[in-house]
Amino acid sequence: MDYKTYFRNYPDKDGRFGEYGGILVPDELIPVFHEIAKAYNSICRSAQFISELRRIRKEFQGRPTPVYHCERLSRKVDGAQIYLKREDLNHTGAHKLNHCMGEGLLAKFMGKKRLIAETGAGQHGVALATAAAYFGLECEIHMGEVDIIKQAPNVTRMKILGAKVVPVSHGLKTLKEAVDSAFESYLKSYKESIYCIGSALGPHPFPVMVRDFQMCVGIEARQQFLEMTGIMPDMVCACVGGGSNAAGMFSAFLDDPVELCGVEPLGTGSALGEHAASMTFGTKGILHGFESMLLQNADGSPAPVYSIASGLDYPGVGPEHAFWNQQGRVNYAAITDEEAVDAFFKLSRYEGIIPALESSHAIAYAMKRAKEMETGAILVNCSGRGDKDVDYVVEHYGYGEKYK
């Protein structure tokens, strides 16, 4: 495939990346998503919109975030050199604000009054609550009761920022159920609201819109790495749940001779219910208005999923990731809870950086591959900081005495 013209051709007019994607929603909502797509396609080419978003990124978000060489961790691994794109230093502590500010600006353009979304780890919820406060909009965040307990600091932050947090108590009470609940709320209020999905998934135009708003991560990282080293990295990796941070990171390197790898959560095992590795174990199916690779039961219903990282425990993946995998451009691997926790403590101890458990999956994979490669360089998207996870990690793993 010619990746020089990739963004001109994908998604197509129907919002599809090959056989994945689309707008698979109730008939009454199809015009709503067409309206969002039309508005986005209008403003994404507007000099005024682009200028305002760039100003927000610089003056409010603190972009660009830096690329950092993990010198001590690289010595510990004794292999390829490991670099981090420091999205944990983005305002609110993760990459999520990149698309939330864009979606908030779009909502203002469309005359909407309320932002509705789901959240798992709470980073998207905090980012959207921040965007709502910035733009003077109402904010409604749906969150599974399991995640509300697990991610209590982020729940507090959302409420301080003025968001209404809606607990979701059905099913597994995690991210998939939160998406269900947010969609139901949106169905009742779409005339005055916009649904700001938290990843590069859902009905068109959200997969492409979120990817585009996240492309600043990859564009910055590519330029910064070249300036630091004079060469391209051998590999770029990022964690993948729905896939927003990875989509933004990978998009800048598609036409480069660089290995791209998305890292999924293997949890505690390979059986259904023990992991959330949709690309590794999934099959093609439909969920939440789009077609992609999903973890499914025998009857085609979404399978139960699990990950230590609340932001990764979703039974599907964004359609563009499924397409990239099908085309052979991006590889996908899986990391266990134990490997992620090991990376969490090692990055903390050797570099003074406490990563999110989501990001720890990508860091763990980079450590594993660095040792195998022996030489070269790996660029990892450190998609968020671990403040939200420290209480949970200490409760279940202590202070990392065995992770030396």
Characterise the protein shown here.
By secondary structure, the chain is an alpha/beta fold. It folds into 2 domains: about 15-60 and about 95-205, Rossmann fold (3-Layer(aba) Sandwich), CATH 3.40.50; about 60-95 and about 215-395, Rossmann fold. It has helices at about 5-10, 30-45, 45-60, 70-75, 95-110, 125-135, 145-150, 150-160, 175-190, 205-230, 245-250, 280, 320-325, 335-350, 355-375, 390-395, and strands at about 15, 20, 65-70, 80-85, 115-120, 140-145, 165-170, 195, 235-240, 260-265, 285, 290-295, 330-335, 375-380. A 6-stranded mixed sheet has the order 3-4-14-9-10-13, sandwiched between helices. A 4-stranded parallel sheet has the order 7-6-5-8, sandwiched between helices. It has a two-stranded antiparallel ribbon with strand order 1-2. β11 (about 285) and β12 form a beta hairpin. The longest helix has 24 residues, at about 205-230.
